[in-house]
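Now for today's protein.

===
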Amino acid sequence: MSPDIRRILLVAAVSLCPMMVSVGAAASPPLQLAMNGNAVGKMPQASGTTPSGLKHIQILAPANGAEIGTGVPVVLSYDVTLAPNGNHIHFYVDNHMAGLSHELKGTFSLGTLAPGTHDICIKEATVAHVLIGVNRCILVTVK
């Protein structure tokens, strides 16, 4: 199966998951999924908005402009406060979706990247996966 078809199927499955749980049924917390379909961790259930309604996305590590050694996995450390219509975040490397998460604070592994400069972004999305314009990007160089 091609990676593009796998991504489409994964996004569709993640979108439909809430509809598969019957009302009042006990369910275990959903999993954070990487685009390869592997479970990455549990997602806490939280609104993510501050009492004042402020929103933000912080990439705590790596730093903007960081140099990373070839073969070293890139692990994002982040902290997010969702906008009122935000539901989760998407991770992008060079404008290609690398995964998604409902975790508002934590880490996300992007794996190893090819040598060169890469644009890494975290973008906020609605429950329907529509990007709402809240995002943060950094540039890293793999040497």
Notes: The mean pLDDT is 75. Helices lie at 3-20.
